[in-house]
């Protein structure tokens, strides 16, 4: 019978330094898991909030512009200057640039959010100097605001750029650079303006796609400056309520329903239906009998309603009788059977 050797026992005692070797192997992994300062905290800023903030800034600028136009319309410069209604329209780009500069001066320049960003709990952060890891990182929203150079470039690009572009477009349209009878230099300049506008729109569209994908840098200027919108307070909820929007939607639906129903109602029939419930039932006959009870003026072509003999204008009485087969007199509420010219036999 063959002899089978048994395998050596593997459950013997471990080496004396096994625990120390295993501890040295797992210590770096334990330190990396326990040290939270080395973990990058991902943050996600709502794209809807960023779009709403930009829209609110536009609405705020429009409100300031409307109030400023009203102020100028009320001012009287009798000796030196007289206000004309179309005067501000000629200087509309300057007015828009002035209002945008005021918003920039009292918000971004002093490290404060714009009105729209404040309502959406957003602020600008210099992404180049924002800490990624470290002991000072707790929520991932930490980081300094924009630098002085970023603020100045922001003002030049948004305020100055929009002003120069609007003035260039109005000047080129006024001079008719695009007409075929213009000089070659003017047509070439018009082509450069159109190409620049198309290039900018294409770049803006590409930047929009990147923003929708990553949620960073809503505009091209923000991407160039590395100025990212982040939440100002991590525990603050959305400050804009939908209560006003709901009321507006309800009122729009109600007004549309009235626009559909009002043409179907006959005003004279409604008035005659409510006449018996009126407290002053003699109001219809209290007026002057010589005047037409419909237009309240002296009839140019007087006609009388039969059989009540009340006096009307021909056109007022004729149109009512044609509109309603059983028209009732406005004064006595009696059915008008026929009409007759006053004084005729």
UniProtKB/TrEMBL annotation:
What are the record keywords, sorted? Membrane, Metal-binding, Peroxisome, Protein transport, Transferase, Transmembrane, Transmembrane helix, Transport, Ubl conjugation pathway, Zinc, Zinc-finger
Return the protein name: RING-type E3 ubiquitin transferase (cysteine targeting)
What Pfam families is this protein classified in? Answer: Pex2_Pex12 (PF04757), zf-C3HC4 (PF00097)
Q: How does it sit in the membrane?
A: Multi-pass membrane protein
The lineage, from the top, is: Eukaryota, Viridiplantae, Streptophyta, Embryophyta, Tracheophyta
Family from the record: Belongs to the pex2/pex10/pex12 family.
SUPFAM superfamilies found in the cross-reference section: RING/U-box
Q: Which organism is it from?
A: Urochloa decumbens
The reaction(s) this protein catalyses:
[E2 ubiquitin-conjugating enzyme]-S-ubiquitinyl-L-cysteine + [acceptor protein]-L-cysteine = [E2 ubiquitin-conjugating enzyme]-L-cysteine + [acceptor protein]-S-ubiquitinyl-L-cysteine
Q: Give the pathway listed in the UniProt entry for this protein.
A: Protein modification; protein ubiquitination
- Superkingdom, taxonomy of origin: Eukaryota
A GO term for molecular function: zinc ion binding
EC number(s) reported in the record: 2.3.2.36
